[in-house]
Automatic annotation (TrEMBL):
PANTHER family: FLAVIN REDUCTASE, FLAVIN-DEPENDENT MONOOXYGENASE, REDUCTASE SUBUNIT HSAB. Keywords: Oxidoreductase. SMART domains: Flavin_Reduct (SM00903). This is Flavin reductase family protein. It comes from Aeromicrobium ginsengisoli. Residues 16-158 form the Flavin reductase like domain. Belongs to the non-flavoprotein flavin reductase family. GO terms for molecular function: FMN binding; riboflavin reductase (NADPH) activity.
Length: 169
Protein backbone atom coordinates (compact mmCIF):
# COMPACT_ATOMS: atom_id res chain seq x y z
CA UNK A 1 0.00 0.00 0.00
CA UNK A 2 1.38 3.39 -0.99
CA UNK A 3 1.62 6.03 1.70
CA UNK A 4 -0.52 9.01 0.77
CA UNK A 5 -0.11 12.51 2.17
CA UNK A 6 -2.49 13.29 5.02
CA UNK A 7 -4.58 16.44 5.23
CA UNK A 8 -3.20 19.04 7.64
CA UNK A 9 -5.15 18.85 10.94
CA UNK A 10 -6.33 22.48 10.68
CA UNK A 11 -7.83 21.89 7.22
CA UNK A 12 -9.47 18.67 8.38
CA UNK A 13 -11.01 20.46 11.39
CA UNK A 14 -12.37 23.23 9.15
CA UNK A 15 -13.92 20.71 6.75
CA UNK A 16 -15.49 18.73 9.61
CA UNK A 17 -16.98 21.92 11.09
CA UNK A 18 -19.39 21.83 8.13
CA UNK A 19 -20.82 18.48 9.24
CA UNK A 20 -23.89 18.71 11.48
CA UNK A 21 -23.53 16.40 14.44
CA UNK A 22 -25.99 15.38 17.13
CA UNK A 23 -25.21 16.61 20.63
CA UNK A 24 -25.37 14.01 23.37
CA UNK A 25 -24.30 13.66 26.95
CA UNK A 26 -22.97 10.17 27.50
CA UNK A 27 -23.24 9.00 31.09
CA UNK A 28 -22.16 6.08 33.24
CA UNK A 29 -21.59 5.29 36.90
CA UNK A 30 -18.15 5.40 38.52
CA UNK A 31 -16.82 2.52 40.59
CA UNK A 32 -18.02 4.26 43.76
CA UNK A 33 -21.52 4.68 42.31
CA UNK A 34 -21.33 8.38 41.43
CA UNK A 35 -22.80 9.71 38.18
CA UNK A 36 -20.34 10.67 35.46
CA UNK A 37 -20.91 12.15 32.03
CA UNK A 38 -19.59 14.37 29.31
CA UNK A 39 -20.78 16.04 26.12
CA UNK A 40 -20.17 13.91 23.02
CA UNK A 41 -20.91 14.95 19.45
CA UNK A 42 -19.05 12.05 17.83
CA UNK A 43 -22.12 9.81 18.11
CA UNK A 44 -23.85 7.79 15.39
CA UNK A 45 -26.32 5.03 14.72
CA UNK A 46 -24.35 1.97 13.62
CA UNK A 47 -26.71 -0.98 13.10
CA UNK A 48 -30.40 -1.81 13.20
CA UNK A 49 -30.01 -5.59 13.61
CA UNK A 50 -28.81 -5.71 16.30
CA UNK A 51 -29.45 -2.10 17.34
CA UNK A 52 -26.05 -0.52 17.90
CA UNK A 53 -24.48 2.93 18.22
CA UNK A 54 -20.93 4.22 18.13
CA UNK A 55 -19.25 7.02 20.03
CA UNK A 56 -15.71 8.28 19.66
CA UNK A 57 -13.74 9.40 22.70
CA UNK A 58 -10.21 10.75 23.11
CA UNK A 59 -7.77 8.15 24.42
CA UNK A 60 -7.20 10.18 27.61
CA UNK A 61 -10.92 10.76 28.24
CA UNK A 62 -12.02 10.22 31.83
CA UNK A 63 -15.37 9.04 30.48
CA UNK A 64 -13.58 6.32 28.51
CA UNK A 65 -11.80 5.15 31.66
CA UNK A 66 -15.15 4.85 33.47
CA UNK A 67 -16.76 3.08 30.48
CA UNK A 68 -13.93 0.53 30.39
CA UNK A 69 -14.86 -0.43 33.96
CA UNK A 70 -18.66 -0.16 33.86
CA UNK A 71 -19.27 -1.51 30.33
CA UNK A 72 -22.59 0.37 30.24
CA UNK A 73 -23.54 3.81 28.97
CA UNK A 74 -26.54 6.07 28.88
CA UNK A 75 -26.91 8.31 25.83
CA UNK A 76 -28.88 11.49 26.52
CA UNK A 77 -29.78 12.91 23.10
CA UNK A 78 -30.11 16.60 23.89
CA UNK A 79 -33.10 18.75 22.97
CA UNK A 80 -32.72 22.07 21.14
CA UNK A 81 -33.20 24.03 24.38
CA UNK A 82 -30.33 22.23 26.17
CA UNK A 83 -27.28 24.00 24.67
CA UNK A 84 -26.34 25.35 28.11
CA UNK A 85 -26.34 21.80 29.47
CA UNK A 86 -24.09 20.68 26.59
CA UNK A 87 -21.64 23.47 27.41
CA UNK A 88 -21.77 22.68 31.14
CA UNK A 89 -21.02 18.97 30.59
CA UNK A 90 -18.18 19.78 28.17
CA UNK A 91 -16.16 21.16 31.12
CA UNK A 92 -13.37 18.94 32.39
CA UNK A 93 -13.69 19.75 36.10
CA UNK A 94 -16.29 19.95 38.84
CA UNK A 95 -19.58 18.26 39.61
CA UNK A 96 -21.34 18.42 36.26
CA UNK A 97 -24.57 17.02 37.70
CA UNK A 98 -25.05 19.81 40.27
CA UNK A 99 -26.74 22.06 37.68
CA UNK A 100 -28.71 19.29 35.97
CA UNK A 101 -32.08 17.70 36.68
CA UNK A 102 -31.46 13.98 36.45
CA UNK A 103 -32.37 10.57 37.92
CA UNK A 104 -31.04 7.02 37.87
CA UNK A 105 -32.52 4.88 35.08
CA UNK A 106 -31.27 1.31 34.60
CA UNK A 107 -28.36 2.21 36.93
CA UNK A 108 -27.32 5.04 34.59
CA UNK A 109 -27.65 8.83 35.02
CA UNK A 110 -30.54 10.07 32.86
CA UNK A 111 -30.97 13.79 32.23
CA UNK A 112 -34.45 15.29 32.26
CA UNK A 113 -36.27 16.58 29.16
CA UNK A 114 -33.93 15.21 26.50
CA UNK A 115 -35.05 14.48 22.94
CA UNK A 116 -34.01 10.85 23.37
CA UNK A 117 -32.55 8.34 25.80
CA UNK A 118 -30.64 5.11 25.15
CA UNK A 119 -29.25 2.55 27.56
CA UNK A 120 -26.41 0.54 26.07
CA UNK A 121 -23.99 -2.27 26.79
CA UNK A 122 -20.47 -1.85 25.44
CA UNK A 123 -19.72 -4.44 22.75
CA UNK A 124 -16.22 -3.42 21.60
CA UNK A 125 -13.55 -0.74 21.93
CA UNK A 126 -11.63 -0.07 18.72
CA UNK A 127 -8.47 2.01 18.33
CA UNK A 128 -8.95 4.91 15.93
CA UNK A 129 -5.95 7.22 15.78
CA UNK A 130 -5.95 9.51 18.82
CA UNK A 131 -9.44 8.27 19.74
CA UNK A 132 -11.17 5.05 20.76
CA UNK A 133 -14.43 4.10 19.06
CA UNK A 134 -16.95 2.59 21.47
CA UNK A 135 -19.42 0.18 19.86
CA UNK A 136 -22.46 -0.44 22.03
CA UNK A 137 -25.64 -2.53 21.79
CA UNK A 138 -28.81 -0.56 22.55
CA UNK A 139 -30.88 -2.15 25.33
CA UNK A 140 -33.63 0.49 25.54
CA UNK A 141 -34.54 3.47 23.37
CA UNK A 142 -37.00 6.24 24.20
CA UNK A 143 -37.86 9.51 22.47
CA UNK A 144 -39.79 12.69 23.17
CA UNK A 145 -41.36 15.25 20.87
CA UNK A 146 -38.59 17.79 21.61
CA UNK A 147 -36.52 18.86 18.59
CA UNK A 148 -32.88 17.68 18.76
CA UNK A 149 -29.84 19.83 19.42
CA UNK A 150 -27.19 19.77 16.68
CA UNK A 151 -23.75 21.33 16.30
CA UNK A 152 -22.25 22.73 13.10
CA UNK A 153 -19.78 25.49 12.26
CA UNK A 154 -18.98 25.76 15.97
CA UNK A 155 -22.54 26.75 16.85
CA UNK A 156 -25.51 25.00 18.39
CA UNK A 157 -28.78 24.83 16.49
CA UNK A 158 -31.52 22.44 15.49
CA UNK A 159 -32.74 20.85 12.30
CA UNK A 160 -35.35 22.55 10.14
CA UNK A 161 -36.80 21.18 6.92
CA UNK A 162 -35.98 22.89 3.64
CA UNK A 163 -38.94 24.57 2.01
CA UNK A 164 -39.93 23.83 -1.59
CA UNK A 165 -38.54 27.17 -2.82
CA UNK A 166 -35.02 26.42 -1.57
CA UNK A 167 -35.11 22.88 -2.98
CA UNK A 168 -36.11 24.02 -6.49
CA UNK A 169 -33.36 26.65 -6.87
Amino acid sequence: MLAKPLAPPEEFLEAMANVCTPVTIVTTATTDGAPYGTTVSAFASLSLDPPMVSISLGRESRLLAHIRRSETIGVNILAANQADLATWFARSQGDKFQEAVWAWDSQLPRLDQCAGWLTCTVNALIDGGDHVVVLACVNTAQTSSAPPLVYARRKFGTHSALNAQVCSD
